[in-house]
Design goal:
Helices cover 29% and strands 24% of the residues. It has 577 residues and is α/β, with parallel strands linked by helices. It folds into three domains: 56-225, ANL, N-terminal domain (Rossmann fold), CATH 3.40.50.12780; 279-460, Rossmann fold; 463-563, GMP Synthetase, Chain A, domain 3 (2-Layer Sandwich), CATH 3.30.300.30. The strands form five sheets. A nine-stranded mixed sheet has the order 2-1-11-10-12-13-14-15-16, with helices on both faces. The protein has an eight-stranded mixed sheet with strand order 7-6-5-3-4-8-9-19, sandwiched between helices. α5 links the parallel β5 (133-139) and β6 (160-164). It is globular, with a radius of gyration of 25 Å. The N and C termini lie far apart (59 Å).
């Protein structure tokens, strides 16, 4: 098993600043936690709206949100006996209750565990059991799913179920299924309860599970200090001014909404909550949104919307002095063409970011100041460490030596700093392997550029080896995305009798082009832009499977093409001389 190198203590020695009266004390030190952002903003900007939920015509101020979170935290502690380190799970969409949970649960001393509501009941049961969850706060829409999951769990390990009711969502009652409702918990609490601070800022604040595409999901444990710093990092990274208006598109269950609940509280921002991301353009126009974040698929949703929805957004943003809004695109490498189209057609400025569940979501991003230094086709996707990530590098995965900053040599992205997880819950081996060599090993491939910047090329497992040549699937996908008919594309390897592996492109067409574009058209398009050996040899037209965060599920596609027996075309016979 790989070992983790301890912190360097060689420089620790006694000097004149080690006087006992110069050590941390109540007057000069406090453990960092993003829960403090809510307390500060509720004091300084009590009447500033904290969130807006159009489905219920609801607008709540920071003073009211702070009171509700204190009351909920009090009930969790006094009525349910929640203790520091206990896990409280949340299953729900981007509604106000889930935003509040990001403050009330850590404020009770507990660890928040948000669950992907698109998982199966068996997947959810696995997470609840592995996390040893004490309570499950479940939105009314997903009560049947939660009940199915709870039936799988052994009785003595089954968490108490609390319903998050929502008058905007109708349902049939489930008598006796829940112990209480969310609003009952809030109403029963004491508004004078002080939200708890962690004993150590390195205490766990959140538990998030990886997708588990190569085995059982891993429970990623993150800490208060990292969440505090990650929240501040995107104030700088997105150049946020005070009181931003943030439209919730990225699911709150995904890395705690990339830490944006805490960022919004730090900036006295307004969260525009939506049960599902179905009316983005209406919300953007109605609330003068300044920021949003999401996966590349959101760009397709915006571009494919009806013109009558796009026109108000275009007009409103054209009238803004500072333009905007800013759209952080992460979760998968975005096609630069789509980014430019979103900017040109809607006036929405896109910025790329990169990260993983293990790094609190995005931890590196594109700096606009670097735009003039990068080639035109790369200037949107160069990455640099965010303000609060100590360091990033691209290394040879075998030697851990840095690769040349030549923009060509491919290596593995490694990261280190406060925006890296504590480790994987009850999984020492995976934690040690992830931290081997003093870095967090991402498994993502990139090339390095001068000045500490890098450019993601692919996941190591997504590289296609054809005729001994490494083909980066992201590069082929970006080329195919430049065809106007392509709405989405994923490239995977399929067996090839001659080359070993061949590129298979699974393409989702825009509705207007269905039936009018052929596989030969797209192959020819790719060959005009790429070295011919990189072009797909097989093109399949079908809808692309995606996660709730918009990531294309390549493992699902690989399994499907394997089960269907898809292979490269037979080799051409040479003409007889």
């Amino acid at each position: 098993m790989a070992s983790v190198r301890p912190l360097n203590t060689d420089l620790v020695h006694t000097h004149k600043f080690d006087e006992p009266f110069l050590t941390p004390c109540d007057a000069n030190f406090e453990q960092l936690t993003p829960v403090s952002f809510l307390e500060r903003t509720a004091t300084l900007f009590p009447q500033q709206p904290a969130y807006i939920y159009d489905a219920l015509d609801l607008k709540i101020t920071y003073a009211t949100m702070h009171e509700r979170c204190r009351k909920l935290a009090h009930t969790l502690v006094k009525q349910f006996g929640v203790r520091p380190g206990d896990v409280v799970s949340v299953l729900g969409p981007n509604t106000p209750a889930v935003v509040e949970a990001h403050f009330a649960i850590p404020g009770a001393g507990a660890v928040i565990h948000t669950i992907n509501y698109r998982l199966t009941a068996a997947d959810i049961a696995f997470q609840l059991e592995h996390a040893e969850a004490t309570l499950l706060l479940c939105d009314v829409e997903f009560l049947p799913l939660a009940l199915e999951a709870l039936e799988i769990i052994d009785g003595k390990h089954r968490p108490t179920l609390v319903e998050i009711a929502d008058a905007s969502y109708s349902k049939d009652g489930v008598p006796g299924a829940v112990a209480a409702t969310y609003e009952e918990l809030v109403a029963a609490g004491d508004a004078g309860f002080a939200l708890r601070k962690p004993a150590s800022e390195h205490d766990a604040i959140s538990l998030s599970y990886t997708s588990g595409t190569t085995g059982s999901p891993k429970g990623v444990v993150t800490h208060h200090r990292g969440a505090f710093l990650a929240s501040l990092a995107w104030q700088q990274g997105l150049e946020m001014s005070l009181r931003p208006v943030f439209l919730w598109v990225v699911p709150l269950f995904h890395c705690n909404g990339w830490c944006f609940p805490w960022t919004m509280a730090a900036q006295a921002g307004v969260s525009i909550c939506q049960r599902h991301a179905e009316s983005l353009l209406r919300a953007m126009a109605a609330h003068d949104v300044t920021h949003l974040a999401g996966a590349p698929v959101v760009m397709n949703m915006l571009l494919n919307a009806r013109e009558d929805l796009k026109a108000p957004v275009r007009a409103r943003h054209a009238a803004r002095r500072d333009g905007g809004p800013d759209f952080m695109v992460a979760g998968a490498p975005p096609p630069p063409l789509l980014m430019r189209q979103v900017d040109a057609e809607l006036g929405i400025r896109t910025r790329t970011a990169y990260g993983l569940t293990e790094t609190y979501g995005p931890s590196t991003g594109f700096l606009p100041e670097h735009a003039d230094e990068a080639p035109a086709d790369h200037q949107l996707i160069w990455q640099a460490p965010s303000l609060c990530l100590a360091e990033s590098a691209v290394v040879d995965p075998a030697t851990m030596e840095r690769v040349p900053e030549d923009g060509e040599t491919v290596g593995e992205v490694v990261l280190r700093g406060n925006m890296v997880m504590k480790g994987y819950l009850r999984n020492e081996r995976a934690t040690m392997e992830a931290f081997a060599g003093g870095w967090f090993r991402t498994g993502d491939l990139a090339v390095a550029h001068p000045g500490g910047r890098f450019e993601i090329r692919d996941r190591a497992k997504d590289v296609i080896i054809s005729g001994g040549e490494n083909i980066m699937s992201v590069e082929v996908e970006a080329a195919l995305h430049t065809h106007p008919a392509v709405n989405g594309v994923a490239c995977v390897a399929v067996p090839d009798e001659h080359w070993g592996e061949a590129v298979c492109a699974v393409v989702e067409l825009r509705p207007a082009y269905e039936g009018s574009v052929t596989a030969a058209d797209l192959i020819a398009h790719a060959r005009n832009l790429l070295a011919h050996y990189k072009a797909p040899r097989v093109v399949l037209f079908r809808a692309l499977p995606r996660t709730a965060t918009g990531k294309i599920q390549k493992h699902v596609i690989r399994r499907a093409v394997k089960e269907e027996g898809i292979t490269g075309p037979p080799p051409r016979k040479l003409k007889q001389q």
